[in-house]
Design a protein that fits this description.
The complex is a heterodimer of chains A (249) and B (69).
Chain A: H1 14-46, H2 60-87, H3 90-122, H4 130-151, H5 155-169, H6 172-182, H7 202-234, H8 239-242
Helix pairs in contact in A: 1-7, 2-3, 2-4, 2-5, 2-7, 3-4, 3-5, 3-7, 4-5, 4-6
Chain B: H1 16-21, H2 26-68
């Protein structure tokens, strides 16, 4: 402690994590707002009109980042849930539950913007394509995770039951990702790959990355905010929450 | 559908009306962006309300402890 080493496990208790989360939250919120402003500027004023799709392609700047976030957040959520299940650490389970609604929101936005993009491009809002269907399953997994936890009176028992659901559901994430390769889908293949240059104009690619970073920062801020509320809710009977200055009347 | 920087405005849009029309895809593009913005704004409001409620819960527990003591 005296030699400048940060003891990370200190933050594994809600009591120490609550103020830390409160200090970090505004930074992530401000970063999210700045990145979103920059991303929207690129999306509408820098990126050129697409030669084939005209202006309808501009949906990509929220559709792809939202889809990425929905998958990524699920894996992080399942990771926290699994950690809570294995080590019985109460903060881990709280973090998993703090992520779920934001993940569900991005899964919904992925489906919603996909439908609005599909209609002018394919002529249909919805098709039972492997990519679309597996993303819909992801949305339902988020809802099922939240519903299962809400249905069990004891939050700690609910944590364990919903963690099992979250972990089983992880199998769906690679299915979504590889669906465009494994099945013959209407949905186009990956636009971004590590092994080859992006199949789009540099400005379009930049806009998508900046929007993805904005969603990322937003997700962190929303998760921290919700985790703080969950800590207060679950530990309202404990001394540390009652000693908080915001709990003074 | 060419991104020609003719006249004023920005590279993409000749006028504000052009911007809102989105080359005829206004419904789809704005339908995507506005719903995304509404969802995020909704989540932020929801989180604020949840925090307020949680703090009231803490105060209620505290009051119960103080009267019991």
């Amino acid at each position: 402690m005296t030699n400048g080493v940060i003891h990370w496990f200190r933050f594994a208790s809600p009591q120490s994590f609550y103020p830390l989360a409160g200090r970090m939250l505004p930074w992530f919120a401000v970063l999210a707002a700045l990145l979103a402003a920059a991303g929207l500027w690129i999306a509408f004023f820098v990126a050129p009109t697409d030669a084939q799709q005209g202006e309808s392609y501009r949906i990509i700047f929220i559709h792809v980042p939202a889809s990425w976030m929905s998958m990524f957040l699920y894996v992080v959520m399942a990771g926290w849930a699994g950690f809570g299940l294995a080590f019985n650490t109460r903060l881990s389970s709280m973090m998993a539950h703090a992520i779920a609604p934001t993940g569900a929101l991005f899964a919904f936005l992925s489906l919603w913007t996909g439908a609005l993009w599909g209609r002018p491009t394919w002529g249909a809002y919805w098709v039972w394509d492997a990519r679309l269907t597996s993303e819909l399953v992801l949305f339902f997994l988020y809802l099922g995770y939240m519903a299962l936890h809400a249905a069990i009176d004891d939050p700690r028992r609910g944590d364990r039951a919903s963690a099992v659901l979250a972990l089983v559901g992880v199998i769906n994430v690679p299915i979504i990702y590889f669906s465009v390769q494994w099945w013959n889908t209407l949905h186009q293949g990956a636009s971004v790959s590590i092994t080859r240059a992006p199949s789009m104009a540099a400005t379009m690619f930049a806009g998508m990355l900046v929007m993805a970073l904005a969603f990322w920062m937003y997700s962190i801020a929303a998760t921290l905010g919700r985790a703080r509320a969950i800590m207060l809710e679950r530990e309202a009977h404990m001394q540390w929450t009652q000693d908080l200055k915001e709990a003074a009347r | 559908m060419d991104a020609g920087p003719e006249g004023g405005g920005t590279v993409n849009w000749g006028s504000t009306a052009d911007f809102f029309a989105m080359g005829g895809y206004g419904f789809y593009v704005w339908g995507s962006y506005l719903v995304t913005a509404a969802c995020i704004a909704g989540e932020v409001l929801f989180l604020r309300a949840r925090r307020g409620k949680a703090l009231r819960q803490v105060r209620a527990e505290k009051g119960r402890n103080e009267t019991a003591a």
